[in-house]
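Hey Z.,

So I finally got round to the MF3 thing we talked about over coffee. Here's the setup:
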Amino acid sequence: MAIELKSLEELKTMRRAGLLVAQTLELVRNAIKPGMTTSALDAVAAANIKRGGGISNFYGYHGYPATICVSVNEEIVHGIPSAKKTLRAGDIVSIDVGVEVDGYFGDSAITVPVGEITPELQKLLTVTEESLGAAIEQVRVGNRVGDISAAVEQYVTRHGYSVVREFVGHGIGRKLHEDPKVPNYGPPGQGPKLKEGMVLAIEPMVNMGHHASRVLKDQWTAVTEDGSHSAHFEHTVVVTKDGPWVLTRP
Ligand code: MF3
Ligand code: CO
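And the result:
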C-alpha cells in the first residue's frame, strides 16, 4: 500500500485530534492514584474525548472493548481497563489514547508512576521516553524509517533494556494504522524514505528483561514473557521540511 502524504489542511485537523489526545492523557495522568481502578481511568478519558468532540478510535477496533488501553507493570500494551484491576503504589502504568476528530486520528501513550516507584523503574520510564525523543530527532525529509527504528534500538540497548518486536509503530491519518510500519529495532538507512506530509505514530515498547512477549487469554493484553516490567511512550509526528512536528505535544 502507498504511504499517504497529508495536506496542510488535513494536518490542521490531525493537530486538533492530537491536542485532544494530549489533553486526555494529561487528565488521566493527574487522576492516577493508588486505589483507583483501571476502568475509572477509562471513564475519565471517555468523558474528555466526548467533551472535546472526538471519538475513541480504539473502542470497537477489531472488537476492542474500551476507550483507552491501560497496561500495568509487566503488561506491555493493550491492557483492557477493568473494574477488578486496582492500581497500587509502586506500579507503573501505560496509558494509550487514540481519538478521531472530523475523520482524522491521533495516537499517543505515556507510562507514569503510581505513587512512589523504585529508582530502577523510574530509569526504565526515563530511558523509554528518551528513546522516543531520539526517534523523533530522526524525523527529517530524506531520512528513512530505519533511521527511526535504529535510533530507538540503539538508545534502549545501550541502557541494558530490550525492545519489543511483535508490536510496531505505524503511519496514521484517516485510519489508525496506515503504512508504513515503524519497528523499534533494525538497521539504519533502510525502509521507506521520509517525505514531507508523512505522519507516523512512533511508539517504543521497552522491557526491563528479555524482549519476548505473549498475549493473555483475553486476546488483547500483551505481557512480557519473563514477567519483567515494560514501558511504552508514543507520539504522532509529521515529517515537515523544517523537521518533526509532534501533533500530540501541546
Ligand atoms: N495505540 C495502539 C496502536 O497504535 C493501540 C491500538 S489497539 C486498540 O496500535 F485496539 F486498542 F485500538
Ligand atoms: Co499507535
